[in-house]
Amino acid sequence: MASSSMAGEDGSPSSSSTMTSEPPPPDRGTLREAVAALYTSPDQNQRAAADQWLQWFLRSDHAWPLSIGMLRDATDLTSLEALFCARALHVLLRRCVSKAEKTQKSHAVLGEGDWIGMRDCLLPMAWNFAVKTVLHDVRGAGSIPGEAPPRTVLTQVSLAIAALACKMPNWDERAVVRDLAGYFGVDAEAAPDAVVNTVVALGGGAGSNPGNAANNAEGHNKLSPEGAAAVTRAGAGCLLQILAVLPDEVTAREISIHPGRRAAVADGLRAAAAEVVHPALDALARRLWASGDDVPGGDDVNGRILLQEAAAAWCGFHPEAHGSCPGSCLEAAVRCLCAPHGSHHPKLVDASVTGATAVLVAAVHRPERREALGACLGALRAAARANGPIRDEYETAAGQSRARIAEVLASVATRASEPPPDDGPRAPDPLGTGADAAADRKYIPYRDFRKARKERKRADARGIDEHGNLREVEVPLTRADVEVLCFCLDALLEAMEAGGVSPAAALEPWSAMADAWETWKNASAKNVLSNANAGASALLRRPAADPAIVRCAAAAAAAGARCVRMPASAGATATDDRRDDYEYPNSDDDEEGDEYREERDELGEGLRDAACAVDPNAFLPVAVAGLTASIDAHAGAVTAVTAADGGGRSAVDASVKSVEGWTFVLFATARLVGKDGPRAAVGDAIFTVERLVTRVPVSNRTTELAVWTIGGLCKALSAVTEAEVLRAALGAVVTGLNSDDPSVSRGACVAAMRTCESCARILALPADQSTHSQNANDAVGAIARCYANGGPWAPPLATLRRGQEPMTTILCRGLARVAVAKSPGSASEAACVELAGPAINALRNAAATLAAASGECAAHPSHDALVRALQAANALSRMAAECRVVAGALAEASAKSAAEKKSAIPDPHPDQHPGSFPSVAAAAIADALLPAADEALAALAAAAPVFSAAGVGVVANHPAVDRRIHDASEALEAVGGLLADVVAAGRVAPDRLATSQCTGIALRLALNAYASDPVRCHPLLDVVVAALASVGPGARSNPKLSSELGAVARAALDAALDAYDRAGLRHDDAARASMFKLTQASVRAGCASLTDLAERVASLAHESLVTGSSGESALSSLTFAADVLSAAAMLNPSRHAPGDAGVRGGVGMGKVDPGMGRLASNLARAAGGRGDLPGWASDAHEDAIRLADAFHVVLCERGAGVALVRAMLECANGLMPPGLVTDVAAALYAAWMAVGDGRMAEWLHGALGGDRDGFPRDSTTKEQKEDFIGLLLFLHADASGHGDLGPSRLGKTGEKHDLRRFKRCLKAFCGGKKSGSGQ
């Protein structure tokens, strides 16, 4: 399309270009068929073909004339056809240009005449569509011939006009709005002839017949009153629609426009905002909101909607422009929102919310608009107040009206909490794009532009400005409009209490303020780290909140206390007659019985935001004062009732509700108080909660919240020095433990655990050495006695959800911290042994119960018997988890005692170490804990045939298994974890517990159980892995210990290989992964017992890869293969790893960047000794040297290395799912880091083969393979690419040891579809 082309008769740009290889020129019929096929055809192939043809049509020169021609003569168009053509015009105008020649295929070049012709065509076209819509609305459906065009067509034409205004070079940007207002604002008789003719043709002429369009068109051009009103209303609608989209169009990123032209148009629109736009909108508002009796055609609802949308668009585009507030548009929006619900159309209410929000938000921080702002906010607040009973339901009409008003108030409050706007001119951004691009932006090569943007992003993340200085972080709320903010916050609280406004909506501004403080805190922390000055820490000191805002936070707390609604069963208790079927009120199954749960969650979150906004340390005294006052009021009400002989019960009920509400407030916010919390307020909170729990008769739900509050304050309790505070906290906890309600006692258990963990050092002191009173120690003793007696009453363990722990386990965790903290070490050991007794007995009882239940099920099979057996296995699993807690405590206590003895601290009780064990803790493990684990394994082995016969663990969705009752595999995993913890205790006290006595017993138990059933008992291999991982470098120099562990590992591996050969283990992914993990641990530990299995291990790794697994099984196969390839070099790097190997150069997997997949992260952790696999044995270890030599022979002389590398490449080439290519790259990369360039290049040459190998494609040449090896290993970074391996595909090579570069290169070579390969 040449720049000198003139506009055609239909307003479209003319063109002399012809198509050669493209489809024939389309006509109306072809276009209509394609549109119908795309949107209505049930055939997918037809829709795809139509979409392809329409995409070509939009890129062709035929789109202009055909779209405009069809829209000009739209009498027979369907709504879909009209919408497509209008959308096409918008898209085409967005990418058209005004240049001397066409520089992009997607662009169309328009000359001066083309632009004018397009404008002269689009403006009357929009008016024509608008007048048809108006007549359809006034007369009703079917009143005009043909299908009425949808309003979306007018929207698309208006968008096209907006795009034209932005890009038309000969349309003065300062006159755009004025020209539009003048064109569409004329009287009906002065409207364009095309519009008048359309109205007359549709029966809007003087003396015309609405039903005879043919006669109406014959010379009757004088409009009737109805026709004139329709023309005027349509013109106003066109103007409003264009004004509503024009600001967004000028700032849209999708429009192709020069930054200079964009800036000029934006400036012109801003200049017209106060002079033209707002006066025009106010005039239209007065006309649109006039009485319907005075307006022909009745109320124009659509015009009113467009009016508010336009007002919102312009206030957002140019908020500092005068004329919006006060204004008739704002007055109309407020009047609509304050009207009774149902008075206006729902879409008009939505638009009024949008318009009022935009105008009022723009008025904040502007003194000249303050009076009007106050009047509007006052009207909205008055309308949102309660006019009837408080707390009506959300679904009521009044509640819905309040909810819409609350949206406006929340937005205004949020804006008032922010700093005032900066209305001055902004400095141009040289790196800005789209609407942010500088008008005089100079061209920057994209590579340099991208680099500069990345540098800016990194600087922003560090808090550095463009001058290299630390960016100053403004303290939130320092420049807030406190008066407006507090007014809106109070109004929102009134609306919430009146009903209809959810807590999330009413407390939304507090969330914004809390987020601002969190952002300030993070930014200040970065500045502190970057500032070397000694006083930099002062940046983190939070200033005191404004008293007015603190008052609002207190009001929010009071409103929350009044509004919170407890479940109907809040006062229920677990009486004896229903204990058997009791379930926790907070369980997932009880959501139907607690209809207010979501509301309470929202309220609690909002209260926490309010506390964070004013500082939790300042909010805590408010919550405590409210709870104290409510308790005092309740006591007074009770006294009054007593004096009146039972009269005045309503006052008591109201006071109880107040106590419950304030308890909820304190519960929701207590967790925010840290160690720096105000000690006086923390003490008052503890005393108040203790008073509530022990002396105030409230519902069980309230008591539960009170004891949970103790747990929330545990961080603050750890810094309290007053003795009575800790005594009161533990006293409330003990009272909760004695409750008949399991929910209360469970909350007390959690509170006890957190308090004991936080204050363990203080609670562990003897009474004569503690500054705290004896009562605190007595409370700990009471908790310990409760635990020893089986804990509080609780429903059956089967009622617990997955992830929930029994109450005894929770108590055990807290008591274990106190026991470990005792001094001296002998006292700590004695306390831990005493604590371990109940847990060990519980495990034994669970094992006996499982044995009995499985025996009963075997003798008399039934569903009920199977469920009882599964419940017993479930209980055993949970008791094994509890024993893991005491095992850890015993290990820590033994380590502490051993350290004291090593420091020559005399033991006052030497007779307490029986036998050959170095400590009573070790004796407890060997004599009590491990025998109990043996009994558990025996019970699980006896139950296994019963479960297998019933199909548990085999049949999917077994009816006896649900989310509460699980199969027995979890119990086996729990016992295996217990034994693994015992052998891993060598990390804590290698001189004491890592002996053949404790570790040996645990390993023997695990090995015997695994050998009996390798598939079922595969979790027990983790015990052997833990033993290998717990042996440090010093212990590996102990030949005896290394030999013992090697023998155990070999025995376990022999059992696994035997089961693998018999195919039982081969098809179980979890069991096979456990075998791989054991083999890896044995190889890494340098077990000489595996020397004769090196070739079998390599073959096993190769077989695991070529099976083409996915998911967890694929990850275990890849890590296994990576370790096998690395074995020789890692076990003896001085002999088998050259100097260029990454591990010898300090690179290795420990240098992997995040974001490269889970396998890369696992390998990196393992390389640093932080994984669950052991680190590689030192080459000073003779066994490791022998094993390394064996693997070297297998890998390098017998071809296993080439085979494994080929298998990994096959996995990247499609043998494994494409999503695993990153993990394949990580495994191959780990091997490269171990063996170095030379060895890996040798393996790659052998794996890739020559020209006829057909890998990865039949067409891949030997030269391409050589080039791939060079690029992959960075042997020649400047190698020229071949085919799709060139620099354009691979990008910059970067550093040699960059895993991201390595992965890109591997993916480029192996990725993509392979022609001729069958993939």
TrEMBL record:
Residues 1-30, 413-436, 574-602 are annotated as: Disordered. Keywords: Nucleus, Transport. One of its GO terms (biological process) is protein import into nucleus. Its main location: nucleus. It is found in: Nucleus. Residues 1-21 have a biased composition (Low complexity). InterPro entries: ARM-like, ARM-type_fold, Importin_beta-like_NTR. Residues 586-596 have a biased composition (Acidic residues). The keyword Nucleus applies. GO terms for cellular component: cytoplasm; nucleus. The keyword Lipid metabolism does not apply. SUPFAM superfamilies: ARM repeat (SSF48371). Belongs to the importin beta family. This is Exportin-1/Importin-beta-like domain-containing protein. It comes from Micromonas commoda (strain RCC299 / NOUM17 / CCMP2709) (Picoplanktonic green alga). The lineage of its organism: Eukaryota, Viridiplantae, Chlorophyta, Mamiellophyceae, Mamiellales.
